[in-house]
Amino acid sequence: MSDGDAEGRTDLRMPDDDEVFAEVAEMLGANRVKVRCADGTRRTARIPGRMQKRTWIREGDVVLVSPWDWQDEKADIEHRYESQEAEQLREEGHIA
Prior knowledge:
Elements: H1 2-8, E1 20-29, E2 32-37, E3 42-46, H2 49-52, E4 62-67, E5 74-80, H3 83-91
Parallel strand pairs: 3-5
Antiparallel strand pairs: 1-2, 1-4, 2-3, 4-5
Function: Seems to be required for maximal rate of protein biosynthesis. Enhances ribosome dissociation into subunits and stabilizes the binding of the initiator Met-tRNA(I) to 40 S ribosomal subunits.
Domain S1-like: 8-82
Family: Belongs to the eIF-1A family.
């Protein structure tokens, strides 16, 4: 019955070359959060205006961030994964 497992799988947004998986560690306010990135770096990430009212971000959420080229300790949040999608990423070994 492995077909049932494949049906439950959804195609997720995967990181581009300049993006990394991250987990929200702390809410800072003023549309900023502290994230722990998959590359081992802790960054301050900005929630862009297009996500502020539409997507609620909480501590523990798995997000996709795009680190800034000119300042590596900062990043922009590009996408938030639902809890079911985050679980799928963990099962497939993309995130720890």
